Amino acid sequence: MPKIAKELSALAVKNLKHPGSTTPGNAVFAVGGVAGLMLQITPGSGRSWLLRTTNVNGRRCEMGLGGHDVSLGEARERARATKDKIRNGINPLQEKRERRKAAIEAAKRHLTFRDAVDKFLVDTLAEFRNEKHRKQWQSTLDKYAMPVIGNLAVSEVTKHHMVEILKPIWTTKTETATRLRQRCERVLDWAKAHGHREGDNPAQWKGNLNAMLSKPSKVATVDNQPAVQLKDAPTWFAALRQREGTGARALEFATLTAARSGEVRGLEWSEIDWNDKLWTVPASRMKMKRPHVVALSDAAMTILTAMKEAATADTKYVFPAIRGGMLSDMTLSATMRRMHENEIEAGRTGWLDKNSKRPAVPHGLRSTFSDWAGELSDYPRDMREFALAHAINSDVEAAYRRETMIEKRRAMMSDWTAFLQGGKTPSSMT
């Protein structure tokens, strides 16, 4: 018969101590009352209960029954209950593993949307240029999504919650609402991938929210790009000319020609007519898919000459990237952003749009030109629209392509340059 351990009292168990250096590792004491019930004491006096027994598969095993907060009496009850399960064909170890797994799954399903956003941002940190960009990404969620679903488990977020979030701004701030939906969709995709929710993404558009909200392009309000104010334009242009680098020169050329960023970045030497001082943008790079002729001012030609002198034989682009190829759109945007930040650091307000109070961006320079042409010159509106390559009447467009009109357009761009260089009154108004 196996040796039966003496049944110790609660006081006797309390007085048990680790033998010290004579016993390396943990010491184990049989406490009796239930066969195989042991008290384990670590060298640091930590205590826990163990049950050594034979499991349903006939193998010897050791099961934990709790720590120092479990009394002797409770440990014996747990040991008896465990043995009863084994006698009834239940594997306590497997049962414990399943409970732990269920607890983990339950915890995953109860991850809040707010916490999911934090974890998502940590996992995707490399996507963000800097901490400021990360905070901008999160600010939209904080403002619109968190009040509705911030404290809700991601597993409980439905498309009706998304409609509740998006509908108030869907027609008034469509661009913001669209970005908000996309950001919620990414967070919820992350949550599903990590086992925090199941099923379709309630923030996806196709086959889901598109049945409950109008198409963004049908309801979007005009959101003009932030522009340099007319009163600030000469000072801004002077600051731009102080900057070095291909990005600064491309931005200067775009300003002088009122061209789009992509048209300037894709400018090739073959598009320049040096004799007649013209730039023909091919239809493939124009928004209206028609070739566009730009009359170049002397200042624009000066930039082209300087870029030509510095150009290498192996590049076809006027404003090439450092490693060759087309210049990135981010290069021009970064130039304007740094100009704005320099103003802020100097204690000034920076280059802010008159209405939105947002920092000006490259595309907004076209609005600055339009404001100048409309407010400070008497050049015809159609001439301004043609310079901007906007859609106009075909007969009017044909007229502005004629040689006589090219020189009038060149005069307009020269007056625009004069304004930028010192705020001079256009010659057309003198």
UniProtKB/TrEMBL annotation:
Keywords: DNA integration, DNA recombination, DNA-binding. The keyword DNA-binding applies. One of its GO terms (biological process) is DNA integration. It comes from the Bacteria. Pfam families: Arm-DNA-bind_3, Phage_int_M, Phage_integrase. Residues 111-192 form the Core-binding (CB) domain. Gene3D superfamilies: 1.10.150.130, Integrase, DNA-binding domain, Intergrase catalytic core. GO terms for molecular function: DNA binding. The keyword Transport does not apply. InterPro entries: CB (IPR044068), DNA_brk_join_enz (IPR011010), Integrase-like_cat_sf (IPR013762), Integrase_catalytic (IPR002104), Integrase_DNA-bd_sf (IPR038488), Integrase_DNA_bind_dom (IPR025166), Integrase_recombinase_N (IPR010998), Phage_int_M (IPR053876). Residues 215-413 form the Tyr recombinase domain. Belongs to the 'phage' integrase family. This is Integrase. The lineage of its organism: Bacteria, Pseudomonadati, Pseudomonadota, Alphaproteobacteria, Hyphomicrobiales.
